[in-house]
Every structure is written in structure tokens, then in C-alpha cells.
């Protein structure tokens, strides 16, 4: 029904929203973004923020906070939005993603608050002191095609990404984690779709968990994820750099930066995740 | 009506909540936490999270995300909470803080989502690589009493804090900002009340803005603030360290760490703020 449904981009098709009534959107969550049994939290955040972008008058997510309640599954879901404030330069709303379980009960999956604005209306002034991460060019990094068994051996989501992991953060894959909470990769969509603010929301949660390099294995479920989109990304590959400094009490933070091909810091994000035994 | 109302602590009295009906709380916002014309965003977050702590079955805020909509004023306000999920180890809810304006219209000030748990139930394992900030002992730092005109010259909130600013991040106060986006201070409450998770929510937003050291002046309004409380703070003074790396497009992030007297990283927080001209 929308441009997104007809798009040649898998990401656009799989984040398509269908208005049911004002502020309420039906969606069909795609199994293509699964990691193990659960759908990726970044993909789900992009779907929710596509709906909020329809519900609010401003086009771009500036800051988005998501709390993850229960694991989402592929199939139908509904997003209910609620506008909190509409201002001249910013507007804010919240949203819940719901799915109906086999017993007929509607269960909330994720609750979000987001503030939207217009990235193209921002002044050009940049006084950042942040520096892009240094790591080898894509052709010297590991892609999912390099893993034993090829790309079909990995998570379903991996097939939709062009991910090139910095070899120095890949020790976990051969049973030799570095012990440092770092993960770095070149990032693109496998079908060549350029990055935009919505795909950045997915990209912040698309790399293997830093916990793997800290010697942990298994699922590291996100409790909360907040993303700041600071400028519209230029075409071309992104660099994603994640750092964990504080693994304590069974929880850890993942601090994520995304840099575009013009060396601009386009996104800063942080999540709190549980380190399950 | 509650212990808080009778407490000898100003912070406890000024964050007291009065249940109106299940999940709805009346509060009286105190002018004592004003900075200029506006009430401090950290103080307001503590009030809201005291209400959420009553509404949810778990006692401690683990991760709290607040989006600031309109400036709050001293006086009556109401907090409406909504429980999203109650689990075994975590529960999540949202809340809105509302005030009635002179024309009788109820206006939302802040919208929050928070996930609560029990800090005392966390395992003791700590594998952090984070290091406490290094700066001079309190007696070599600047207190509000050291400013020209004494403590009465500064913001109302300053009188309620025992804040000792690292001299190397105080250049702005004498017209010589360092140009680096850093702010560091020893932090306590002036009446000697020990820190707890609620006062940590206030402490993350209590220092002068890093923007001052970047040569900006004037108000730096918070758009969004997310706080992770990672463990219960030990008694004694806290160290608060704030870093800004990315001032661009009229916005900046403030990344805040709080360390307790036992050298534990008790809080990580980040806010997105507007750099007004």
C-alpha cells in the first residue's frame, strides 16, 4: 500500500507500516531479522520509529529511548502511538509495540519515547572533539561469508547485512576472546540501500555483543536502548564502534558510535543489557 | 503524610509524593531546586521516579529515560504512572509529570519510561575496566561559597548541594573556558543526607553544563536524559565526571559518570541538550 511495500529494499519492505486509525499502525514483523529465536531489537526499533515518524509532524528521530519488555516474534503486530508535545522545532511522542499471543492476550513487547526534529534544518556548525575509530579497510575485515559454513551458518539477520568485522575484535569467533569490551565493523545493507536515520536505529544493535569479547557466551538481552541521531548519514559504508567498560552485577552497557563515509559522528547510542549466565 | 514529609532531609521532603488514586500522585515542586527560572531536570526526575518506585513492585531505578517537554515551575503538579510489565527480576512503567497553567489547561512537562529492579539482589561480580576520574581532593576544589558574592549569588539549587568543582574545569567562571568539554566535581547534599538511587538521578544533572567550558553561555536545556543506576552508592562523597565530545548542529551530548567513596562506578548517564545561541 505504501512506497515502502513496493521498495526494492528489504529493510524498507520489512519496516512498512499500515495505518489502522489515527496513531495506530499494523505491521508484519519479518523473520528475516531474527537472531536465534528473537527478532533483533534494532530492527524492531526502526519499525516503531517509522510509525512515530508518521504520527509526529517532524520527520527525523533525534533521540529515541526504548525499553524492551518481552521477546517479539515474526508475524503481525500493532503499534499504538501517543503524541506528548508538538513544538516548532521538536515534537515528542511515545509508542508501544504489541502482539497477540496464542491464548488471545495482547502483550506489550517494547515501550518507546522519542523526540523528532528535522535534521536538514540544523546549522552546519561542528565543534566535535570525537575521532573516528581506526581499523582496517573492509577488504581486510571478516564478513559473514568468511565464517565456517558460509553465511547460511549464521543468524538470519546476517544475510541482510554487509558486515565486515575488525579482526582484532573477532577473537571470540575462534575461541580466543580478547578480554576487552570492544566490537568494531564496517556496516551496510546487503542489498545496497543507503543508510538513513531509520536504518541507523537498526545498525546500533546489529553487531555481535561486546560480551563475546569479554568471554561470555549466549544471549545478552537488551533492557533499554537510547539512540541519538545527530546528522543525516552520507551515502557509503558506515563504521560502527562499540565499547563496554562496566560489566558488573550481571549487567553491562554497550556504548555505540556510528561514523559515516565523510567522517562525521552521525549516531551515539547506549544500551543496558543483561549478561545471562 | 509519609516518612519523606517528616524527614530532616530537604531532598526527601521536596520529593515527597501523595497518592491520589492508584498510580496517580500529587506533588509539590519546591522552588529550592531552581536554576534561574526553571526547576532542575535531575530534581524533577527524582520526584517522578519516587512515584514510579511506589507504583512498581521493584524498589530501585535500574534505567530511566526522560524526555523534557516544557519547563516546570515550583508549585503543585501531578504524576500519572502506567505499568507496562511486571516481571520476576525487572518491572517497567512510564510516567508523565503534569502542571495546570493559569488558563486552566493541564500541560505535560516530562515523559519518562523506567525499568526497576532490586540492586541488593545483584551478584557481586565486577569486571569493569572503567577507572575513577583523577582530580584534586575536595579541599583543593571550588565550592559555591568561593564564588564572588558567596553562595547566595548562585542558583537556588546550589545552596542545597555540597559541590566542589575541579579547578581545571572552572575556567568558565573567570572568563577563561578551557575549550574542553569536561566538568568534574565532588558531590554531596548540603544537609549531609547520604546518596541513594533517587539522589543519583538528581546528581547526574547538577553540575554546571560542559558547554560553559566549551565557551558557550546561557541555558542548555535538556531534551532527553537517560540514567543507569548500577549499584547502591556507599556513604560518603561522590565524584561526578561529565564529558562532551560532540557539539554539532546546535546539540551536544553530556556523558556522566558517578563514582562512590569505594571507587565503584555507581551511575552512567547521557543527555542530549540544545546549545542555544
UniProtKB/TrEMBL annotation, chains A, B:
Residues 130-156 are annotated as: Disordered. Residues 30-116 form the Acyl-CoA thioesterase-like N-terminal HotDog domain. SUPFAM superfamilies: Thioesterase/thiol ester dehydrase-isomerase. Residues 139-273 form the Acyl-CoA thioesterase-like C-terminal domain. InterPro entries: ACOT8-like_C (IPR049450), Acyl-CoA_hotdog (IPR042171), HotDog_dom_sf (IPR029069), Sec_Metab_Biosynth-Assoc (IPR052389), TesB_ACOT8-like_N (IPR049449). This is Thioesterase family protein. It comes from Streptomyces daliensis.
Amino acid at each position: 500500500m505504501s512506497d515502502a511495500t513496493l521498495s526494492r529494499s528489504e529493510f524498507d519492505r520489512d519496516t512498512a507500516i499500515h495505518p489502522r486509525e489515527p496513531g495506530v499502525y499494523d505491521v508484519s514483523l519479518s523473520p528475516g531479522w531474527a537472531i536465534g529465536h528473537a527478532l533483533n531489537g534494532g530492527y524492531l526499533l526502526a519499525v516503531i520509529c517509522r510509525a512515530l515518524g508518521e504520527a509526529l509532524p517532524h520527520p527525523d528521530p533525534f533521540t529515541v529511548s526504548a525499553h524492551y519488555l518481552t521477546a517479539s516474534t515474526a508475524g503481525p503486530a500493532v503499534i499504538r502511538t501517543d503524541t506528548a508535545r508538538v513544538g516548532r522545532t521538536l515534537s515528542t511522542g511515545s509508542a508501544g509495540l504489541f502482539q497477540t499471543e496464542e491464548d488471545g492476550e495482547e502483550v506489550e513487547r517494547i515501550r518507546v519515547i522519542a523526540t523528532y526534529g528535522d535534521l536538514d534544518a540544523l546549522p552546519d556548525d561542528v565543534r566535535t572533539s570525537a575521532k573516528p575509530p581506526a581499523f582496517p579497510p573492509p577488504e581486510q575485515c571478516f564478513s559473514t561469508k568468511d565464517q565456517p559454513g558460509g553465511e547460511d551458518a549464521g543468524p538470519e539477520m546476517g544475510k541482510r547485512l554487509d558486515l565486515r568485522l575488525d579482526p582484532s575484535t573477532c577473537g571470540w569467533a575462534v575461541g580466543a576472546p580478547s578480554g576487552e569490551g570492544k566490537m568494531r565493523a564496517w556496516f551496510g545493507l546487503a542489498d545496497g540501500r543507503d543508510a538513513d536515520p531509520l536504518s541507523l536505529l537498526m545498525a546500533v544493535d546489529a553487531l555481535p555483543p561486546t560480551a563475546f569479547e569479554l568471554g561470555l557466551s549466549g544471549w545478552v538481552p537488551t533492557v533499554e536502548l537510547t539512540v541519538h541521531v545527530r546528522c543525516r548519514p552520507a551515502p557509503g559504508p558506515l563504521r560502527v564502534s562499540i565499547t563496554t567498560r562496566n560489566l558488573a552485577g550481571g549487567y553491562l552497557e554497550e556504548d555505540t558510535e556510528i561514523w559515516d563515509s565523510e567522517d562525521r559522528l552521525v549516531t551515539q547510542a547506549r544500551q543496558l543489557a543483561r549478561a545471562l549466565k
